[in-house]
Amino acid sequence: MRPRARQPAPLVRAFTEGGGQDSSSAQSGRVVVVHPGALPTDHYRELAAALPPRTELHVVDLEQVPEYFQAALDGGRSDLTVSGVASRAADALRSRGLLSRPWTLVGWSFGGVVGHALTSFLSSAELPRQIVLLDSVAPVPEYTRGNDEIGPDLVIPWFCMYLAAKRGGAVPVPRELAAGGDVDVDTLLQAVLEAALEHGALRPGTTLPGLRKVYDTYLDGLRRNNRLAEDFAPARARVPLTLLRPERGLLATPDPLGWEQLSDDLSVERTPGDHYSMLREPVTAKLAALAAVPAGHL
User: Fold this and answer.
1) Considering 222, 255, 271, which residue would you say is the last residue of a domain?
2) pTM for the complete prediction?
3) Whole-number pLDDT of residue 27
């Protein structure tokens, strides 16, 4: 029997829970987050609660684009383009009437790339006030790699952060990786498995083959996004950009992750946490303040 095809949910999810939401009253502002997957959209509940009163939160969940989701199960291969995904997101927002009123666009990780591309499909009247990029790497040549360059030395530390975010706790990077040398992936994952079990980031009974399947899917998602970025020729930004960089981000480079090549109106702010934990407090408070509609702009 063939497996049943995955039925996607709506591309745009509205959050009406929390102190910042009130579906029964007129709204004064709007925040739209472009979310590339990996973590569930429920991670944005804290942001919904932290937003100013009468401010909406909507999340564009890219994993609800079937071809995008499937590519993370097919070795990262896809005929999609960044522009194609961004155009679909713009159409979904427009059809729901979400491109009016002062609004802020937020993009986490690869969601920042799609968010930037999305603005190319908007009229001047539909543009957001700004884009807030959460540890997002610009799709410029200096920051794209061949997929054969995306190896364990780069991915294992990210995977440790990812596991910690999924279940809480901490997952230290294996000492074997820090020591250098040619260490095979399964040896590194065995060390990750032992540390994650010790710190409660994986359920008891998790096996190395099971963790390897999770790692391979995670890696294929990175390869998918890398291929999309590599084939994308971004336009210059049409609105101001703010880049939030956590203490432990994807990359340690001191420059603004390539976004200075695409914008003359770019600001950079530092935040606590890592690439995954930055979706929660205390970064949500900073993000909520950035997203607030200034007086006189209602």
Assistant:
1) 222
2) 0.90
3) 55
